[in-house]
Amino acid sequence: MRPVWKENPSPAYQAVKALILGGFALVIVVPILVVVSTSLASDQDIIDAGGYVLWPSHPTLKAYETLFSGGLMGRAIMVSVFVTVVGTAIALAVTIALAYATSRPVLFGRPVLLMVLFTLLFAPGIIPMFLVVKQLGLLDSLWSLILPGALGAFNFVVLRTFFMNVPGELLESARIDGASDFTILRQIIMPLSKAVIAVVGLFYAVGFWNAFFNALLYLNDTSKWPVQVILRTYVLQGKSLSADQLGVEPLPQPQSLQMAVVVVALVPIALVYPFLQRHFTKGVITGAVKG
Amino acid sequence: MLKPNSSKRQAAKGLPLKAKWRRDWQMVLLMIPGVLFLLVFFYLPVLGNVVAFQDFQPYLGIMHSEWNGLQNFVNLYDNPDFWDALRNTLLLAGVQLLLFFPVPIGLALIVDSLVSNRIRRWFQTIAYLPHFLSWVLVVTLFQQSLGGAGFVNNLLRQAGLDPIPFMTNPDTFPLLVVAQLIWKDAGWAMIIFLAALTTVDVSLYEAAAADGAGRWRRMWHITLPSLRTVIVLLLILRIGDILSVGFEQFILQRDSVGPGAAEVLDTFTYYAGVVGGDWSSGAAAGLAKGVVGALLLWGANSLAHRLGEPGIFQRRS
């Protein structure tokens, strides 16, 4: 519905707006489209087009079959999925518990809250972080990708702000009925905040899926590399994936293989994204404005 | 809005510790995992910064390495590479502030002026997406598009033109970096301005329109002033973060552009410390950066208070 004062834009304005917004959207969509198309293109398509394909005329899944057939990339996908699933579960559990406990006036609530908020102000630095991870014996272990990321201050603030707005009377009546704090958290707070938890979960999951630098820093063992490091090594730096590493022969066009690696890094996000998109604004605003 | 605090907990302020414990022990239990994580992965590393004041030897460890006072900071001061990294950091931060910061505001203003909700939703869906892609992916997409063998240069070659080295030219590197940042995050950064715009009182627009203010005057006198608080807030955050221009983005492109243009404080820390084995210098650079960043944030915030803006930490009266 249009407010009365919003007059219909003149064609000139409409054209300028369409140009800016359309251009911005195209610049985002086209590279992604080219990458996806090239990964699906047949060898002949790629040779005909001279490298990149805008729309494959003979789509094939050969590049993906090769990647998923095992070896290096298969392992990397397993690693990334493990880190993302386990990491998100742990991070959500830790953050929800801490956010709920500090959302009410309780013993030690205030100092713990300040403890979290201080982390927003100051970063400990790469070197001391590395030394701690090393001291804990986590080098070359997948836990080095999971544990340091298990509590994000921003996500904590989003959840806490939401929990604080759950009416106290609701919790009070549950308490009178004999519910413990654990029960209240599980049976009242969490069902009420499903949408926010989903968004925070997505933020965590994206963080774990995208983790690149931690992997570079803490993992020497190539067999533990997540997808992002593979992407950097074999696509960005252009080292070629050999048949030996993939465990198959003959290989499809290197171009489509590389683009398939890109798509593997991209797809999980593209899949979850549409379902959570409508909750974004709410989640981000609770975190950013009130925090 | 309903009062958030449970009445029982509110009323029981003056309870003795023992009674509070009996009431709250479950809550305290819920805090423990989070507090442990903070202690181990934040506060312990913060303390670990003492290696910046040591001649740290990994085989001796923190306990047995020798103290050398401020020597590492003196070494940094004498190290031209450190100054290059600092100069690059400030240059890149300046370019980002100048070229990136206005883009989301402009996008939000255009999107807000759209009449069709369908177009608005479509654009938002597309514009938010790149925020969720990793830097590796973003840099890869740029390389595949603009790199020497990328499809733009492919098209140029097919048209008989010379290819343009977008991805490897150190002189234009700051522009490339900002373009990547805009591609990845401008749409996402727009959210917060859009949200601020929805809170504007519509009757202001109606009154202004009735008084004969056209679209530009309404934008200047109503829309932009109502964004002021958010703009100041984000500027403060940006200033506090000015020494972190983005780590992964630079480490990924340092090889192709060269350290002369792509070495920033974070990559300097990494290459000096972890790669070069000079742990103490790396830690000193990292610590200097962290402290200066925190001071900048605090300074910018108190400046905002003085200008009558709420800033990030609300002062409690």
TrEMBL record, chain A:
It comes from the Bacteria. Keywords: Cell membrane, Membrane, Transmembrane, Transmembrane helix, Transport. The keyword Transmembrane applies. GO terms for biological process: transmembrane transport. Its main location: membrane. The chain crosses the membrane at residues 12-36, 76-100, 112-133, 145-163, 195-219, 257-276. Belongs to the binding-protein-dependent transport system permease family. This is Carbohydrate ABC transporter permease.
Automatic annotation (TrEMBL), chain B:
Keywords: Cell membrane, Membrane, Transmembrane, Transmembrane helix, Transport. InterPro entries: MetI-like (IPR000515), MetI-like_sf (IPR035906), UgpAE/MalFG_permease (IPR050809). The chain crosses the membrane at residues 27-46, 90-111, 132-152, 186-205, 226-247. PROSITE patterns: ABC_TM1 (PS50928). Its main location: membrane. It is a multi-pass membrane protein. GO terms for biological process: transmembrane transport. It holds the Pfam family BPD_transp_1. GO terms for cellular component: plasma membrane. It is found in: Cell membrane. Signal peptide: none annotated. PANTHER family: BLL4140 PROTEIN. This is ABC transporter permease subunit. It comes from Kribbella sp. HUAS MG21.
